[in-house]
């Protein structure tokens, strides 16, 4: 059999929907390279098996025995390529061009193995995923073989490694429901527990078991797996062991976190971080989990400390020079890798900033991370134009003085604020408007045309949809807000001449606000003047019509209320005066004319037109003449 450049092999288990996608994605490799395709049939139905012959005549029947390595080796034994590539029937390449280029250019002769990325989806919709480097291509040697009944891999994987810019879509972990996820876990966990019993010193099985427990969020399983491994490697000090050490420490912490034992997380985190054999990446992972525990305990000072240490260790990890093989090992330890992902870094940066804001120490948030935070926020602002719908935590951080969000928002052109107002109006939700106004008021330190424009439209919506049950005082406050916000915007934008005559240059809402402003300048009891201004405002901005009718009604009710109150007060005054005048006459009869005159003069100030009081005053004055 002639030697080919590449052998491609996959297990076919009966997944009809994805198998064809997988095989079709390999067409570029099979057509453009001297290559072959070997399929290992581990459980296909007859219909699918017939279709497989349309892709290759090398189909090997295999009765699956809970040993993926054996199944893979069945295909490997038939391989005639210089290189070997394997994949699953639930994944497919987006573009094989970079792999084709790797072989056609002859570059493959300089390497012993290659990796590309797997995009692992966690939901059937394909909206949640992680990208991981996977070691699936290797130069074939006489001793090349698969090992591992589950999560199998090619060994020996040594020599120079090439990272290829290609990726496969993988839906193997996108379970339809919890039952399917649990079934998958039980199959893998049972195999791994058997392997651990056979090879107790092989850390690979323990790492994979921890990952399985984490996939179903089994805290107790994680703690036990981590503690068993820690006991096994406690006295060992070797590079690979130390890379794994952090993962097992992290397994214990993550398990305790899932169990809600946040005090245990703190205690073990402090203990494990003292182990100088930990890699910088392992220390990052401990700090990451410690931060989560501190957040749950509401210990903001500890949260800030863990986040600061996280980024300190992350910098050390990123600056360390590592071989490609070391990088592949790091990528394979999922528990640790996930906690230094870009997503986790962003989360911890926000938590650090939030903690510093909460404890009143914004200056303790590092300048380097501040710049990255601002970059993240700027991307959010630029993302889809809805820059006022930032996550609530971002507003909290800005309010705490950690970064100048107000400066960033006010640096946006007025046109973007106009579009933002249009978005808010399209949402037609008072809750959205109120959230935006609340967030802005918390960081607002100065006046700006952008704020005025937003306030103007907010007030216009409020006043045009006034609550019919609003009372007079409430209507006054609403109209004052409407008038003030519109006039504030108009006076910034238009010259004084625009407010004269018919005011045609002004927007209709601003014309209406002019008359509402004049209404509030009318004398308190000038009800006719107020009503005249209201009529003019409704005429220039018809949207005010219903609100003006409502307010005019409230004015009438208020006028009536005040008249009634005045009449009642007048009755009470005259009743009181009657009693006082009786007392004055008693004083006069007793010859206490001076005391009587003092009281009468005070009474006259309250009742200047009362004839009886005037007569008493004249009589008393005559007594002193």
Keyword list:
8-stranded mixed sheet; 10 strands; Serine Threonine Protein Phosphatase 5, Tetratricopeptide repeat; single chain; two-stranded antiparallel ribbon; 27 helices; Spore Coat Polysaccharide Biosynthesis Protein SpsA, Chain A; 625 residues; alpha/beta
Shape type? elongated
Kindly report the name of the CATH homologous superfamily of the domain at 176-365. Answer: Tetratricopeptide repeat domain
Cα Rg? 40 Å
Q: Biggest sheet: strands, sense, closure?
A: 8 strands, mixed
Supply the helix-strand structural class.
alpha/beta
By CATH reckoning, the class of the domain at 176-365 would read Mainly Alpha
The end-to-end span amounts to 148 Å
Mean of residue pLDDT values: 90
What CATH architecture of the domain at 176-365 would you give? Alpha Horseshoe
Per DSSP, the total helix count is 27
Record field, number of beta strands: 10
Spatial ordering of strands, largest sheet: 3-2-1-4-7-6-10-5
CATH overall fold name of the domain at 176-365? Serine Threonine Protein Phosphatase 5, Tetratricopeptide repeat
Unreliable stretches covering 5 or more consecutive residues: none
Percentage of residues in helical conformation? 55-70%
Q: Which percent range describes the beta-strand content?
A: 5-15%
């Amino acid at each position: 059999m002639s030697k080919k450049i590449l052998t491609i092999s996959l297990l076919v288990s009966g997944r009809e929907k994805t198998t064809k996608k997988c095989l079709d994605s390999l067409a570029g490799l099979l057509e453009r390279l001297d290559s072959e395709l070997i399929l290992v049939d581990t459980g296909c139905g007859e219909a699918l098996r017939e279709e497989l012959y349309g892709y290759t005549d090398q189909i090997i029947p295999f009765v699956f025995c809970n040993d993926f390595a054996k199944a893979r080796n069945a295909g490997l034994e038939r391989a005639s390529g210089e290189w070997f590539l394997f994949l699953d029937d639930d994944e497919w390449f987006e573009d094989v061009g970079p792999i084709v280029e790797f072989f056609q250019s002859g570059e493959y002769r300089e390497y012993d193995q290659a990796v590309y990325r797997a995009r692992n989806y966690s939901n059937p919709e394909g909206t949640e995923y992680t990208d991981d480097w996977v070691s699936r291509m290797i130069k074939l040697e006489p001793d090349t073989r698969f090992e591992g009944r589950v999560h199998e891999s090619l060994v020996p994987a040594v020599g120079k490694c090439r990272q290829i810019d290609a990726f496969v879509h993988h839906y193997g972990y996108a379970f339809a429901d919890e039952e399917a996820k649990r079934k998958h876990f039980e199959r893998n966990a049972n195999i791994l527990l058997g392997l651990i019993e056979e090879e107790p010193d092989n850390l690979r099985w323990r790492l994979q078991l921890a990952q399985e427990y984490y996939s179903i969020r089994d805290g107790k399983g994680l703690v036990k797996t981590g503690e068993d491994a820690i006991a096994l490697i406690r006295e060992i000090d070797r590079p690979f062991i130390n890379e794994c050490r952090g993962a097992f420490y992290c397994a214990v912490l993550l398990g305790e976190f899932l169990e809600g034992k946040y005090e245990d997380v703190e205690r073990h985190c402090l203990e494990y971080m003292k182990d100088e054999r930990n890699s910088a990446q392992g220390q990052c992972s401990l700090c990451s989990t410690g931060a989560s525990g501190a957040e749950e305990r509401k210990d903001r000072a500890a949260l800030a400390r863990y986040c600061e240490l996280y980024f300190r260790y992350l910098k050390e990890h990123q600056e360390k020079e590592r071989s490609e093989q070391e990088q592949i090992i790091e990528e394979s330890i999922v528990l640790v890798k996930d906690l230094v992902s870009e997503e986790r870094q962003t989360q911890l940066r926000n938590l650090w900033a939030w903690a510093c804001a909460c404890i009143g120490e914004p200056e303790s948030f590092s300048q380097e991370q501040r710049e990255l935070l601002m970059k993240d926020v700027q991307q959010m602002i630029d993302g889809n134009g809805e820059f006022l719908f930032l996550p609530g935590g971002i507003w909290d951080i800005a309010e705490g003085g950690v970064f100048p969000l107000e400066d960033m928002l006010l640096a946006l052109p007025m046109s973007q604020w106009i579009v933002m107002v249009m978005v808010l109006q399209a949402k037609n939700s008072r809750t959205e408007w109120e959230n935006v106004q609340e967030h802005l008021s918390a960081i607002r330190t100065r006046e700006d045309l952008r704020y005025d424009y937003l306030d103007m439209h907010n007030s216009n919506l409020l006043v045009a949809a006034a609550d019919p049950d609003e009372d007079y005082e409430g209507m006054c406050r609403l109209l004052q807000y409407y008038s003030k916000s519109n006039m504030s915007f108009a006076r910034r934008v238009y010259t004084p001449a625009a407010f004269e005559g018919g005011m045609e240059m002004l927007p209709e809402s601003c014309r209406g606000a002019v008359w509402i402003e004049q209404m509030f300048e009318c004398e308190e009891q000038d009800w006719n003047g107020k009503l005249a201004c209201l009529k003019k405002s409704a005429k220039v901005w018809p949207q005010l019509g219903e609100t003006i009718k409502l307010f005019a009604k409230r004015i009438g009710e208020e006028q009536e209320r005040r008249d009634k109150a005045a009449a009642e007060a007048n009755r009470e005054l005259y009743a009181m005066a009657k009693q006082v005048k009786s007392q004055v006459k008693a004083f006069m009869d007793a010859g206490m004319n001076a005391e009587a005159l003092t009281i009468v003069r005070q009474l006259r100030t309250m009742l200047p037109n009362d004839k009886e009081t005037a007569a008493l005053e004249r009589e008393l004055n005559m007594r002193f003449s």
